[in-house]
Automatic annotation (TrEMBL):
PANTHER family: ATP-DEPENDENT CLP PROTEASE, HEAT SHOCK PROTEIN 104
Taxonomic placement: Bacteria, Bacillati, Bacillota, Bacilli, Bacillales
Protein name, as recorded: ATP-dependent chaperone ClpB
Molecular function in Gene Ontology: ATP binding; ATP hydrolysis activity
A Pfam cross-reference name: AAA_2
GO cellular component labels: cytoplasm
SUPFAM superfamilies, sorted: P-loop containing nucleoside triphosphate hydrolases
GO BP terms in the entry: cellular response to heat
Domain (Clp ATPase C-terminal) ranges: 97-144
Domain ATPase AAA-type core: 1-91
Alphabetical keyword list: ATP-binding, Nucleotide-binding
Length: 144
């Protein structure tokens, strides 16, 4: 693909956005009101949504996400128009992040900050305790 376009939390988008997306998903291109056309034929479009996240969040940590798939998909079908859903290639349910997933995420984020600070000749070192604290306060059981 030439580009990836991300629509984060697409369920919050205005209805007009879905009309535009229908054109993009149908035709692989988008034409604006002035006749300009944008080609989407070599584009991956990713849509994220938190619809049904309450069902996933209520699951025990060791339970597979497939156990709540029917509930989540019912919520998705009640929110989005059928003509929109039928144009999607795939709908993927993700497992929620557990508290145990936070350490590598903290490491990635700290490394990003360290890189920014290095350019300013500032060194940031964190103890293991500080990293663990960041993971605890940054974790949300519903949203990861």
């Amino acid at each position: 693909p030439y580009q990836v376009v991300l629509f984060d939390e697409v369920e919050k988008a205005h209805g007009d956005v879905f009309n535009v997306l229908l054109q993009v998903l149908d035709d692989g291109r988008l034409t604006d009101g002035q006749g300009r056309t944008v080609d989407f034929t070599n584009t991956i479009i990713v849509l994220t949504s938190n619809l049904g996240s309450q069902y996933i969040a209520a699951q025990p940590d060791d339970e597979p996400v497939e156990k709540v798939e029917d509930q989540v998909m019912e919520m998705v079908r009640s929110h989005f128009r059928p003509e929109f859903l039928t144009r999607l290639d795939e709908i993927i349910l993700f497992h929620r992040l557990g508290a145990g997933h936070m350490a590598p995420i903290v490491d990635i984020q700290v490394a990003r900050v360290q890189k920014l600070l290095k350019d300013r000749k500032v060194v940031l070192n964190l103890t293991d305790g500080a990293r663990a604290w960041l993971g605890r306060v940054g974790y949300d059981p519903v949203y990861g």
